[in-house]
Amino acid sequence: MTTRTILFDSPFLLGFDHTRALIDRAAKAAAESYPPYNVEQRGDHAVRITLAVAGFSPEELAITLEGRQLTIAGKRDDAGKGGEQAFLHRGIAARGFLRNFVLADGLEVEGARLEHGLLHVDLIRPDQERSVKRIPITTG
Fold first, then answer.
1. Which pTM was predicted?
2. For residue 105, which of 40, 22, 32 has the smallest C-alpha distance?
3. Rounded CA gap, 22 and 99, in Å?
4. Which one of 13, 18, 35, 111 is most buried, counting C-beta atoms within 10 A?
């Protein structure tokens, strides 16, 4: 942690306080382990996040994007199921979850699909032309 603080205190990295906060948030999110997920590179401009959400219906899942933070939440509504089921062994997790991902600049959510207990969230980075901006110099 000390190394990161020294790095971001460099005079060559002005205005990167927000980046430091994003890194801290990403480290906290990486420490969570439920539900398990994959992040897959799909070509030069696409990424797919896949979460194992067996037992969740589309109505029990929510995906939101606020700024650069992608949040995927699962909420189980087991209130109406009372004592109908008596498990001898319960190995499939049935708890709700909240999973956060910090997206890089330029990444956009293309869509999401629930298939065979896996939630796929596809992200793309559209091609952007690089531009060079000339800064005018004024005299006093």
1. 0.66
2. 22
3. 15
4. 35
